[in-house]
From TrEMBL:
Protein name as annotated: Chloroplast envelope membrane protein
Family under the similarity heading: Belongs to the CemA family.
MF terms (GO), sorted A to Z: potassium:proton antiporter activity
Keywords for this protein: Hydrogen ion transport, Ion transport, Membrane, Transmembrane, Transmembrane helix, Transport
Bilayer topology: Multi-pass membrane protein
Localization terms from the record: Membrane
Keyword Repressor: no
GO BP terms in the entry: potassium ion transmembrane transport; proton transmembrane transport; regulation of intracellular pH
Species name: Brachypodium distachyon
GO CC terms in record: membrane
Length: 126
């Protein structure tokens, strides 16, 4: 629908240009090359949008299926991982726990603070 509206707008602009150039034509048989290229470009953009929607949806399904399947089929492994993670975090001091909580929160929210990554880099290189 959006492409059709844009096509009609381009066709109207083309007809207006023809009227301004004083070339009276009653009927346009073939769209000019510029409009034809613009139509092809609009169709490509629309196809890419649909492809991105399908890819995002399939990625969401995969991201939901993997944890769900590991929960249903590997409860014993999850218990082992849970105990290991709890033991790991209980052995850390409070400032490092707070730093990990902030770092994980930054990572999942989408904001990557420069200072946090500088601290991680400093910890890894020292």
């Amino acid at each position: 629908k959006r492409i059709l509206e844009r096509f009609i707008e381009l066709e109207e602009l083309s007809l207006l240009d023809e009227m301004i150039k004083e070339k009276p034509k009653t009927h346009v048989q073939k769209p000019p090359i510029g409009i034809h290229k613009e139509i092809i470009q609009l169709v490509k953009i629309d196809n890419e949008d649909h492809l991105h929607i399908i890819l995002h949806f399939s990625t969401n399904i995969i991201c939901l299926a993997i944890p769900s399947s590991s929960y249903f089929f590997g409860k014993e492994e999850l218990v082992i991982w849970n105990s290991w993670v709890q033991e790991f975090f209980h052995n850390l001091n409070d400032s490092i726990k707070a730093f990990f909580i902030l770092l994980v929160t930054d990572f999942f929210v989408g904001f990557h603070s420069t200072r946090g990554w500088e601290l991680v880099d400093g910890l890894l290189t020292s």
